[in-house]
Amino acid sequence: MGKRSKECAEEEVDEEEQPTKKLQTDPPEYEDPALDNDEGEPTEFSVSIGGLSFETKRKALRKACAKFGEVVTVRRWVRGAPRRADVSFSSAEEMEAAIQGMEGKILQLQSALDEMRILLNHEQRVSQELKAQVRDERRRREMLQREMQDKLELQDHEMKSLLAELETAKAALQQKKKEFKGPPEETSEKPSKVHSGPTQRECERELLAALLEHATKQATACPAVKKEATALQQLRSELEAAQGKVSEAQEAAEELRQQLQQEKLSRFEVEHLLELQRECLLREFHQRKACVADFANFLRLLGQRYPELASCSEMRVISRKARTELQHLNELQREIDGRTVKVKATPKEEQAAGKKKGKGKGKGKGKGKGKGKGKGKGGGKGRGG
């Protein structure tokens, strides 16, 4: 490296020779320059380190950079707000190792700084949330205090109004007492007048009770009244019997309702099971039908490609088996459709069908692939295909 200008960079004086100075907020532009040692000039393998604080010393820089290699000189720049230093090494390998080590340390410090920044942001968010909660709590407490104050004022007002009413009532009572007070002669006459009313009412009540009892005795002594009483008694007994029958009928209706509910549930379960069975059979039917169709198509293509095999007896037997299988599948489809139709029949239709079967008499025979038997109340039997 070339020589540096004296205005920009100067060497520092050895710390043993130069006394320590206090930290200044505004550093001077120049310091007393001196080489780190008297052995030679700085080499071309130097590393510039920036962003140093005012408290950073040459010994600390030399000690930090010594683990990367032999440090020749350490020069510290004075001018400029961010202070920096140039550290010279004896070889390029040591310089590269120092650069890589410092870059790794810088990355570590940056990652640590990012983590601290994230933690700081998190703590700030938490503190903001806590502050918001404190504000809400304070606002809620103020509202509650205001409501309690309003309630206390309202209760105080009500108490005052009640006390005022009580005072007015006491005053009115005292006034009434004063009004009722009079000469002793008047008070002696009043009790007789007061007691005369209840005695007269009691006498009238006793007289009316006696008249009512006499009228009932006369009415019961008449024969027509006796007949009406017996008829009324019979009507009452019939009414009680009818009420008992009605209660029995209600119980029977409730039992029938429960039975119908159970039958509906069982019917629903049976329909569900039959639907599942139908779906399984249809799935099997479609699978077998597709298999038969694929096999028939394969045989057709095989016969077209190899005509000499078309007349083979085995091919005819196989095609005949495929036809019978297809017929069996068609019959299975018809049987599934018939089951679904039977399941969808209503209970009234089933009862009507049972009555029709019971009325028939006679016997019949038929040939077919399916067989069925039916019995009815009339004693008739039938067999058909």
TrEMBL record:
<feature type="compositionally biased region" description="Basic residues">
    <location>
        <begin position="354"/>
        <end position="385"/>
    </location>
</feature>
<feature type="region of interest" description="Disordered">
    <location>
        <begin position="337"/>
        <end position="385"/>
    </location>
</feature>
<feature type="compositionally biased region" description="Basic and acidic residues">
    <location>
        <begin position="337"/>
        <end position="353"/>
    </location>
</feature>
<feature type="region of interest" description="Disordered">
    <location>
        <begin position="177"/>
        <end position="200"/>
    </location>
</feature>
<feature type="coiled-coil region">
    <location>
        <begin position="225"/>
        <end position="266"/>
    </location>
</feature>
<feature type="compositionally biased region" description="Acidic residues">
    <location>
        <begin position="28"/>
        <end position="42"/>
    </location>
</feature>
<protein>
    <submittedName>
        <fullName>Uncharacterized protein</fullName>
    </submittedName>
</protein>
<dbReference type="InterPro" id="IPR035979">
    <property type="entry name" value="RBD_domain_sf"/>
</dbReference>
<dbReference type="Pfam" id="PF00076">
    <property type="entry name" value="RRM_1"/>
</dbReference>
<feature type="region of interest" description="Disordered">
    <location>
        <begin position="1"/>
        <end position="47"/>
    </location>
</feature>
<dbReference type="InterPro" id="IPR012677">
    <property type="entry name" value="Nucleotide-bd_a/b_plait_sf"/>
</dbReference>
<dbReference type="InterPro" id="IPR000504">
    <property type="entry name" value="RRM_dom"/>
</dbReference>
<feature type="compositionally biased region" description="Basic and acidic residues">
    <location>
        <begin position="177"/>
        <end position="192"/>
    </location>
</feature>
<dbReference type="GO" id="GO:0003723">
    <property type="term" value="F:RNA binding"/>
</dbReference>
<keyword id="KW-0175">Coiled coil</keyword>
